[in-house]
Each structure stands twice: as structure tokens, then as C-alpha cells.
Specification:
With 129 residues, the protein is mainly β. Helix content is 0%, strand content 45%. It is built from no helices and 11 strands.
Length: 129
């Protein structure tokens, strides 16, 4: 069982930056694939970014060039650095994890929420114009 706790959300002006963190419990973190999703008001939850145990990463088109996902296995933490934020980035951001050793079938494989087994409670990000 893996428990995930997100932090780092808040209110920021357009063009600003935030770094989200997701702390994971358990001894298998280094072998879990970790993802970030977001859900804007009135919309479905969408994929943002994913990082594998080997450090490979994929991004949604909306995140490419602005967001960076990273992980610190010593701290059991995954991060999402968000720069050049836009009002349309306003959403609840969720951290997600797979079971240990999940294989990588390419970028679009990770867009689906059912590939992830554990979810955090989310952290709110609001970008004002």
C-alpha cells in the first residue's frame, strides 16, 4: 500500500511559478512510476506528466516546455515544477503511483488514469490573470 500526500499548491499570478511535491510512503518508491494529473473546475481529470523509476518522463502537450517532473528517491518524493503559469492551469493537481515495476509502454500508455493504483487527495492551484 502506498499513501501519497501532495503539497505546494496555492494562488499565483499568471507568469509565475509553483513547485508541487508529492511525498510517498512505502519502501518501493524507487520502483514506482509516478504521475501528475489535474482536474479543472467542471472538467475531467487529465494527465499532466509521468516519470518512471529509470528517470524517463513524458508530458501532456499543455505541459511541455513549462512543467518539469522530477523525483528524489532518497526522499520518496516526486516534484512538479510549473513555470510560466496560465489561468487555464488552474486546477486540483493529483499525484498518482503505480505498483512497483510497472512496464513502460510509451507515452500515451500513461495518459489513462487506470494505469495508476494509488492517488493522493490533491492540492489546489489557482492562477490569476
Amino acid at each position: 500500500q502506498v499513501q501519497l500526500v501532495e503539497s505546494g499548491g496555492g494562488l499565483v499570478q499568471a507568469g509565475g511559478s509553483l513547485r508541487l511535491s508529492c511525498a510517498a510512503s512505502g519502501r518501493t518508491f524507487r520502483t514506482n512510476t509516478m504521475g501528475w494529473f489535474r482536474q479543472a473546475p467542471g472538467k475531467e481529470r487529465d494527465f499532466v506528466a509521468v516519470i518512471g523509476s529509470g528517470g524517463w518522463a513524458y508530458y501532456a502537450d499543455s505541459a511541455k516546455g513549462r512543467f518539469t517532473i522530477s523525483r528524489d528517491n532518497a526522499k520518496n518524493t516526486v516534484y512538479l515544477q510549473m513555470n510560466s503559469l496560465k489561468p487555464e492551469d488552474t486546477a486540483i493537481y493529483y499525484c498518482a503511483a503505480t505498483t512497483p515495476g510497472a512496464p513502460n509502454y510509451g507515452s500515451q500508455y500513461w495518459y489513462a488514469q487506470d494505469k495508476y493504483d494509488y492517488w493522493g487527495q490533491g492540492t489546489h492551484v489557482t492562477v490569476s490573470s
